[in-house]
Amino acid sequence: LMWQYSLAHCIVKAYFPKGKKELDVSMFQAVVLQSFNERASFSLPEIRERTKLETEELRRTLQSLACGKIRVLNKTPKTREVADDDRFDFNDDFSQKLFRIKINSIQLRETAKEAEKTHESVFRDRQYQIDAAVVRIMKARKTLGHNMLMSEVFSQLMFTATAPDVKKRLESLIERDYLERDE
After folding, report:
1. DSSP class of residue 18?
2. CB-side exposure of 64: number of CA atoms within 13 Å?
3. Do the strands 100-102 and 19-26 form a parallel or antiparallel pair, or are they unpaired?
4. What are the pLDDT tens digits along the chain (183 aa)?
5. Which one of 33, 60, 94, 157 has the minimum C-beta count within 10 Å?
């Protein structure tokens, strides 16, 4: 298991001139907001130095806090992208009807290479699930016709498998001597 800091979130109590609010933010957003306890204004390099976050992660985090629908921070200049010479200030004019406010993080887009790697991993995991289902069924039944085996496998699987995929896995199990054909 590995801790995913980018997926953690917490509740931060914020005191604005127009009232106290609870902000439901990601861990990175909370770290950035904590910097504004000491001063009301920072540049991007100053925040990077204080938080020790990676540059791209910090840019996404600041973009969500200063350029999103809920703007807890003000950004100068007022553009959508975060540049190295931008300044960030605590938003004294922030007001919202709700007491607890969820500030969404900006998600990183998955690249084509990562998507391909994910699909390969899912395919490999599904192969193991098909193998396990076939072995489980055959241990319980000892002998079974091909059509009955296929229907049993399809009923046990949690995902929709295709008949050619199951046939390939059956052939693989036969080659590895987990199963044998009845003559």
Report:
1. T
2. 22
3. parallel
4. 777 776 778 888 888 888 888 888 888 888 888 888 888 888 888 888 888 888 888 888 888 888 778 888 888 888 888 888 888 888 888 788 888 888 877 766 667 888 888 899 999 999 999 999 999 999 998 888 889 999 999 999 988 888 999 999 999 999 998 888 887
5. 157
Cα distance between residue 2 and residue 69, in whole Å = 32
Predicted structure pTM score: 0.56
Dmax (CA) for the chain in angstroms is 84
Cα distance between residue 82 and residue 13, in whole Å: 25
Task: Give the sheet arrangement for strand 87-90, strand by strand.
Answer: 41-43, 87-90, 73-76
Query: Cβ–Cβ contacts within 10 Å for residue 31, how many?
Result: 19
**Please, what's the b/e burial string for 147-182 (b: 16 or more CB within 10 A of its CB; e: otherwise)?**
eebbebbeeeeeeebeeeebeebbeebeeeeebeee
Could you tell me which residues come within 8 angstroms of residue 110 by beta carbon, excluding any fewer than 6 positions away? Answer: 118
